[in-house]
Structures are given as C-alpha cells and as structure tokens.
Amino acid sequence: MSDNGREAALYLDDLVVGARFRSGEFVLEEASLKAFAAQFDPQPFHLDDEAARQTLFGGLAASGWHTAAITMRLLVTSGMPLAGGLIGAGGEVDWPRPTRAGDILRVESCIQAITPSRSRPDRGIVALESLTLNQRDEVVQRLLAKLVVFRRPA
Amino acid sequence: MSDNGREAALYLDDLVVGARFRSGEFVLEEASLKAFAAQFDPQPFHLDDEAARQTLFGGLAASGWHTAAITMRLLVTSGMPLAGGLIGAGGEVDWPRPTRAGDILRVESCIQAITPSRSRPDRGIVALESLTLNQRDEVVQRLLAKLVVFRRPA
C-alpha cells in the first residue's frame, strides 16, 4: 500500500484489480461534526451529547453523510489520484459503527472490478471499495463506489 | 401522497409497504454548492463553471455527496417523520444526472420493505426508496436506504 499523494494521475489503463490506495488523515472536530449536522442532519444524536446518550448511538455521533463527505475529501485530496478526477456514478454505503468527535479518519481503498465501457471506448467503470477507518483501526464506513475512469488519450 | 410535515411521528407499527412521503423543497444556491465542494469534494467541475464545461458534467455540478446531504436534510425536516429519528444503517445511492446551481430539490419516498428484527423485538429495518427531484421533475438522486425504525413502546 502506497502513499499515492505524490504519484502521477492514473488512467484506466494503469489500474488493475486488487490495487490498493491509502489516503492521508482527517481529524473530525466536535464543532465541525455539529455544524454539518445543523446544516444537513439536524437530529439530537448528531447535535447534543446529553440527548445522544439516550439513543441507539450512546453518545454524540457524526451524521453518516458527514462521514461520507469526509471520505470523499480524503479520496480527492490524497486517496485516489485518477486522471480527470473522481467521478462517482453511485454506490453502496454502510456505517457499521458511529464516527465520534475527535476521531482521526483515513481511507483505504482497493479496486474490486474494472469494466470497460462497450458504448464509449474512452472510458470504463471501476468498482472501488473504500473503507473509512478511525484511529483504532475500526471501520466506520464501507463504500463500494462505481467510478467513471478515462483511458489515456491516444 | 401527503405533506407529512404536520403529521405525528411514526413507529414501525404505523408503516406499510407502498406508503409514500413527500418532503418540502430546498433551493441550492451556487455559493452553497461551491462551499460544500471546497470543503468536501474540491474538484474543478464542482468549483468552477468554466473548467466544468470541459468535463463530462458540461458545466458546474454539485458534488453527489452534497445532493445526498441535502436529501437527508429534506427527509429529516419534512420528508419522513419517524419516531426516534431517521437512523440509516446504510444504503445504495445513484446520481443519474447532475444537480445544478439554482435547482429546487424535493424528495419523494416510498416504503419498499419492512423487516422486523429477529434479535431485537423493539425494532425493525425499513427499506425506503427516496428519489430526489429537481424543479423539472428529473431524478438527480435515487437512494435506497436501510432505516432502523422502532416499535411503539408498550
């Protein structure tokens, strides 16, 4: 697994199933956690620690969509250096455990499948599994994304 | 389909497959689109209209994760009045077309399946399809979410 932040951008031609990529880290501050929740997911367990203790989360927890957004930031800035950028057509996301204030997140990705487009020979779809882990190496999000990746121009 | 913002919170016992829910609306301002992208998805097609014209998006487009976050806001504030809140265990998300600056978004949801928990009789998993539509009734996101929903306390 390499720190690929310094590597050149990759085309579809450069990718192989099983290739692994590792992002930098992101520290989730409590103020950011609450600010995202206030804007996009205003529920007590994302806004107030005391109220959150009475819920399934057992304490203040980040919105899953905040974890997803941080994951995207890590992928874009250091986790997956694709030529043409990271363009997702969709995917599956699961949050096996909560992200907490103070967590230090990173993303470890692995290419699961590469499917050249039949109708558009300049591109393909890459299935990328990205696990978002905290500082205890616990998985807080599993994302299986379908990415549009371009071939190297002739 | 009802404007359920004024209805009482719903328990698992109140839900039936096929039930539909409709959210209020959210106007995506260009400044918000760019601010989200700068924070979580800093790529040219989400930040700069001129640069975006040269890409697959054909012009400035919101991050898919921004569309997802706005969808969550609409569901939480007006789209799905669940007792105990909207707790997602995960789901599948697709973005069939871009969300643009100035778009007016709303969410239309339909219960696809209800699965009582075998190990925890106080709850179940609800599969909810939520379509996020723009002002031209075009689907910009399809989300199939697995929600944890509680039974009415005895």
UniProtKB/TrEMBL annotation, chains A, B:
> What's the short name of a Pfam family annotated to this entry?
MaoC_dehydratas
All copies of the MaoC-like domain together span 27-113
Among InterPro entries, the record links this protein to: HotDog_dom_sf (IPR029069), MaoC-like_dom (IPR002539), MCH/BMMD (IPR052342)
Q: What is this protein called?
A: Acyl dehydratase
